[in-house]
Every structure is written in structure tokens, then in C-alpha cells.
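Self-study notes.
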Amino acid sequence: ARPVTNANFLVDLGAGHPERPAAGFHEVVFPPFAAGGACSAPLMLRRGVTGSRDLIEWWDQARAGTPAEPRTVTVALLADDRITVVRTWHFGRVRPVALSYSPLNALQGTVLMETIELTFETVDIR
């Protein structure tokens, strides 16, 4: 068995639609998972900015003190065939804690990135 690359994955933000363009994250940064208790570091998801406002609205609800129900966020690592699921991380009781953007720079003209940082209470790795 050959190791799987880290380039093929899907993210479901709790809506059950990981194939939608708004779920098209280019990077998932996992925190270290401690064996003996809750994790204090956030799960970070990064994507290019599009017209989607789903992350802004989710973060804004939390910021305003009227957060929506906690979500289950799922990250599925796919094999090179982009069909076979190799590993799945299910994060339970997820809430946004920070939203950030890469710098605006007229000299570089690269894709503007948005990052959402999420806290979670549970993780199940399968």
C-alpha cells in the first residue's frame, strides 16, 4: 500500500453538501489531537474568496452572541481516484471563533484567501 497524498479532500460544514463550491477549501490545518482531554487549538479551514457569504454569516452570528446551533464538520481524505474515502475526521459541536483574510496587494495579484478558525468539543477519526 502506497501513502495517500494530501491534495484530495472534501469538507462538509454541516450542511451535507461537500461538493458545493462554497465547500471548496484548499487547505485544512488540523490541531494536534491530545489523548487525554479537549483540544485547545482551533481547526482552520482556508479557501479562496468567492461570492459566498456562508462563513461570514456563521462567524457573524457567533460574534453577535446569537450563535447558531453547533455543527458537525466532516473532513474526508480521498484516494487518488477521488472517489474512495481513506480517512474521515468528524468534528462535533463546532463553532467559529475567528475569520481572517490574506493581505490585499495590488502588486502581486494573487487569490484572496479567507480562513475560518473553529473550536470543537469532539473529534472522531475513522
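Second protein, same conventions, sequence then structure:
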Amino acid sequence: PSLLKLINRITMGFNRATYDEAAALGYDAFLESQLDYESIDDSEWEARLAGYDFPTLDMTSQEIYDTYVDDMQGKPVEELIQATALSAIYSKRQLHERMVTFWTDHFNIEILKGQCRWLKTADDRDVIRQYAMTSFPELLTASAQSAAMSFYLDNWSNVVGHAQENYAREVMELHTMGVNGGYGQGDVEEVARCITGWAYIGPRSDAGLFGQFRFIAKNHDDGTKFVLGTEIPPGGGESDGHTVLDILVNHPSTARFIAKKMCAWFLGYNPP
């Protein structure tokens, strides 16, 4: 196998230092080292990042809100964008950076939409980066409970009797099964019912926990649901959401959709 092709596919781009490292390790060992990204000493880049003085990267959403609520120019947004670009260039954990980019696109959030200005930093750090190379079910669940995603796709307003279908539709069309994955409008409506009450703590809460996931039981539809031919019995509460995510994760369309998208990402737009 071509070492140069491997580098071009699993890193953010060729440079001599990376090539020399890969040549010294060999094809398989270099690939394994990048897969085991936490074992890579990235202290040099971490020290360099600290020198840029991007304080918002380590802040909670509440801290960002309290500090920058009147900053409509978006210092938290600017710092996240700059840090993301710099990490892609300088981090030695290149495959991890490739997957961070992949999943950031896959679980797309418009950072300039309302509260996303204050919430996306935590989503990037605690969802995308934390779960980028774990498992898809873990990442999907973390995204579903992300305040940034909840606000962006309006699930915070999804309540019994007034179901908001935006996230329910996108979680099937974009996040799991794909647009031609075999679901219908009825499935969208039922998924929306399953995740009624899945919200987050607002910025002005006395608890000071802005952005943390919150299940609001009184807003949840506890009736029987049917998703993709599977009956979800009544009384499930918060677990209805987890049940529907399990159904989507285990659907064959999801495996095909995610695998094809990964092949396109690593091999080319029209993989064989």
C-alpha cells in the first residue's frame, strides 16, 4: 500500500515531518498509532494552543453566556473557528482531526443562529471531539442531547400536543438513515413524539447550568408510538428517546449511509 496515499487520506495534508514519522513506523504501525490517538503525545501543540489565549475554549456555556452575552461580534465564535483551524494544522493527532471535521459536517450546526453562539463551543468539545473516534451510538446520543443541536433544530420546543418535527426529520435524513433510507412522514411524526420533552437548561436558570441536557416530563408524550414498524409502549418517559435512537442506529440504512459517507470522505467523492 502507498504510504503517501495513507497520509493524504488520514491526515489534514502532507508534510515532511509526518511522512518521515510514517516511514519510520511503517504503514500499519502509523495507521494504528493514529487510531490510538490518545496515546500520541500532543503536549507541544497543547502548549502552543494555550499561548494563543483562547479562554472560551474551556468555559461552560453558562460562563460564555455570562461573559459574552452582549458580545454580538462573537468572540466565542471567533476563538472556536481559529482554534479548530490551528488544531487541524498543528495537532499530531491528525486522524482525530479528520474525524472531528467529518462529524462536525455530519452533525451540522449553524454557529451564528441565536444561542448557538454560546452553545457550540461545548458541543465541539464535549460531543464532537470527545466522541469522534468512539462509537456512532455514543456520538449520536451525545448529539441528540446537545443544547446546541436542540436549539439549532428546535427540539427544545418539542412538546406533547405540539410536536416540533425539525430534529426528528433531520436525525433520520441527515444523521442516520439518509434521505432514501426507507422512512416516511409517519415515522417523522412518531420520532418527534418520542423525543418530546428532550430539552436543555436555559441561560437564565437559577441553577447556572445553561446548556445542560434536561428532560421535562410534563412536556413528554407518554402514549404508544410506532417507529419503523416497532412498537414503543406507553409510559417510557425519557427512555423513549433512547429507544428510538437505538432503532435508528441499528437500521441497515444507517450502516449503508454512514459507511458510504466515510468512504467518500477518505477515498473520494465516488468510492468504488
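Instructor comment on the second fold: The radius of gyration is 20 Å.
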